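Appendix B. One record, verbatim.
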Amino acid sequence: MKRRRMNQVPLFSSAGELANMLVTSNLIEAAWAKIPELQRGQSALPSSVQTMVDHPTPKCTIVVFAPSPDSTQDALSQGGDLVPYPKFDFLCTKGCPSVSINRAALTLFTPLYDHLSGLKDELNKREGQLIITGQSLGGSIASLFTLFLLSSMDKESKCRPICITFGSPLIGNFGLQHSHWNSFFLHLVSDKDPLPTLFLPSGRSAPTSSHSQATAYKPFGTYLLCSELGCACFDDPDFIFKFLTVASSEVAGGLQVVVDYGEILRNLKYRAICKGPRLVGERLTDPFSAGIVMELKTIGIDPAKHNIDIGRMEKDARDLTWKTNKASEAKKLNDRKINMVWLEWYRKKAEDVKKDYYDCFRNERFNIEAKIQWHMEDLTTYWEDMVAEAERKPQKEGASFRTGWLQAGTTYRRMVEPLDIAVFYKDGGRDYINSERSQHYKLLEQWYEEAAKPPTSEELDSKKQKVSVLLTEDSCFWAHVEEAILSCKSLTNANSTPELRESSWNNLVKFGEYVMEQIENYAVSPEIFLKDSCFMTWWGEYKVYIASPSNPCSLRFIQFIDFMKTGRYGVYGRSEVP
């Protein structure tokens, strides 16, 4: 028999096995045990929401939230509307610029904010396991507090939370569905519990919750869905929403039903240990599909009756498995080094023949440019995906993500974009920066500038010593050169209008100022001054028009002209001061 490789997509769905593993662990049981304990003591305490911080072991902390029955009813009477809450704007992304939270949950959470800010600071100092939990609206508060806590944690934090809720309603819209933070949430939901389906379009929604508002709710995190037959884990938000909608139409008894999740956990644990029968009820040739059908029936969903697309669920499950088994982001970035080595080799090859990197590629000097372009495209595909992923992340996580990859992204941009510019202008393009530049280049440059600090005199001196081996910092430098060449042509063209000539002259003055600024900051590579480079070709044409300029010029432009005419560019990057 062939041995299955570790990264091969499995033949069977594992949602049921994962659920059984969870219910037989002590994690969920430990979280649930503290909820009844806190609820029993509520009558003697005046606060509308009780909070308990328990330390069952030195390396484990459990935080429990339990609103009183009266405060729960008061909050639910506020309705199921989704409302913006500025304190959660850290979840906003470019794709989802606003985040809305359930009004009932906010009614309970907002008065606790100052107290929870202090608790957050205390928990950030702890090490070990941290469990945050609650039932029904207590679970909603637990979810909001966990998000609040995650927003203040950095990657080096030694106490990462897991939020476990029991029968908690949905609390927000699409803005909560964030892949990195989804993994911190586990929601247990029984098909007999009316509260998780409260704000869905079922006829039982709170009176102020419109149908459009109800359908705007989105699940986030992993859901452990339970029925009398067993349980299964799912994290597909569309399927979870479908399950909750089905349960919403079938659950009986109204909000007066109180579900004992302790009893449910004991029954599920017994079933998992005893391995009771799990029947599909129909014959399916594909074991993966059979596994999905079996898991759906385990949680009380009949695929045929409830119009469940098994094919889509199977595809999503296989895709998720494939993505999970892909190499880590660090490994993928490391793999891109092979592409970068090829570009470095090409740059060295140009240097060996005393030609600049940009012009060698533009003029296809070595007849291997097609292979270099293949490596460029591979790198571009990777970085476009990385930038898009950073854009999708909430503000804090996105900023942290960008910082981690910014140096590699900046090197990529400075190596590859000049070659994209070469292709663009060789094909007759004009105005690359405004008409053609890719958004991912713009964002990489923007993030670099946001993170950069003005260089100190010591750092500037260090750049001067190393400038001969540094890349030109502005990855659009050669686009500016190409536009300057086009402006020179406009000056010599007899058909150019006086207005066009004046505009071209002004553009060239600005270009000279720009180049001088780059030189003063040691931000350009000395290769731009090599013989026959595009830049030196431009200079050869341009100096004809500046023997006695009649147009007004800035001091920096005059400094640039003097720098070039006196030949000081020949010692640029050496120990002499230009």
